[in-house]
Amino acid sequence: MIYEEGTNGRGVLLIHGLTGAPAEMRLLARHLNRRGFTVHAPLLAGHGKDEAALRRSRWQDWLESVQEARAFLSSRVDAVYAAGICVGGKLGMMAAADAPGDIRAVAIYSPCFHYDGWEVPAYYPLLSSHLRWLSHVPGLGRLKFRENASLGIKDERMRRLVANMGAEGMLDAFPAQALFEMHRLGRHLKGRLPAINTPTLIIHSRQDDLSGPSHAEYIAGHIGGSHRLHWLDDSYHMIHVDRQRGVVADLTADYFEADDAAGI
Fold first, then answer.
1. 47-50 contacts: CB < 8 A, separation 24 or more?
2. Are the C-beta atoms of residues 228 and 239 closer than 8 Å to each other?
3. pLDDT tens for residues 194-210?
4. What domain range is 249 assigned to?
5. I want to staple 237 with a disulfide (CB 3.0 to 4.6 A). Which of 156, 192, 210, 211 is the partner?
6. If we measure between CA atoms, which residue out of 81, 126, 124 comes closest to residue 102?
7. CATH number, residue 65
8. Phi and psi at residue 82, in whole multiples of 5°?
9. What is the structure's pLDDT at 130?
10. How many helical (H) and strand (E) elements, i.e. helices and strands, does the chain have?
11. Does 126 have pLDDT greater than 90?
12. Rounded CA gap, 255 and 239, in Å?
């Protein structure tokens, strides 16, 4: 867990991605904290230990972790915001939809409903269209997949740094069951998008190696409330730690400080 008090009365809930851990949010947390925000990065249920623990968790468990963290942060600040990478961003949007007004605005980085980026194996997108029924095949959830060699990071120095975060709870492989849960979470979010009125910032790289631009465009085209879509051009999937991490942090802070996000 990461928690640092700020000075502006506003708190940002930072939500890591699938197989990730709070450690991956550290650089973003420092940047936002320097801008005055209180920052809190919780560990999602099933994460931070091993593949078996992740396989036993469900997307509802991950969402419950976010909701508990929101309650913790709400008791310490005047206004709460949420920012998350990939699955973490979707969980932030779901938490905001479940408690309208409790989360004032959300930033979602590199949204992904299934893996179809330029570096994923060709069969990934083909399998994605069948995940719903594949999830019911006995034993299939125990299969595991390894992260791409790039780890979703273009910057080689940052890639080496993240690769050494295993001791801090980040996994370099994930079970198929986690993919099934990611898919189920995505279906639930898609069904709720038209009714979501929380101001939402969507940031996606055109060079994303795991999820193509269509994912960000889908959210922008279907969400019911105000939103802003910003494209990056020098990062892969993990934009919050990659070459343009400072841009991501500043865009996030600016959006949360803006009148439309603050509800003023």
1. 47/16, 47/19, 47/20, 47/21, 47/169, 47/171, 48/21, 48/169, 49/169, 50/171
2. no
3. 999 999 999 999 999 99
4. 2-262
5. 210
6. 81
7. 3.40.50.1820
8. -135, 140
9. 53
10. 11, 9
11. no
12. 17
Secondary-structure percent of the chain, ordered helix, strand, coil, rounded to 5? 45, 15, 40
Q: Up-side HSE of residue 161: CA atoms within 13 Å toward CB?
A: 14
As beta bridge partners, residue 83 has: 14, 107
What's the pLDDT at 127?
Answer: 57
Where does residue 178 rank: exposed (0-12), middle (13-18), buried (19+ CB within 10 A)? buried
Question: Per the structure block, which two tokens stand in for 83?
Answer: 């920012």
Task: Compute the distance between CA of residue 158 and CA of residue 73 in angstroms, rounded to an integer.
Answer: 29
Mean pLDDT for all residues in the chain: 88
Tokens of 10: 């506003």
pLDDT given at position 133: 47
The DSSP 8-state label assigned to residue 103 in this structure reads B
Number of domains, the chain:
1
Contact in structure between 12 and 107 (CB atoms under 8 Å): no
Burial class (CB in 10 A: 0-12, 13-18, 19+), 160: exposed
* Dihedral of the alpha carbons of 148, 118, 201, 47, in degrees to the nearest 10: -20
Give the length of the chain: 264
* Residue carrying structure tokens 């979707």: 90
Distance between the two ends of the chain, CA-based, in angstroms? 31
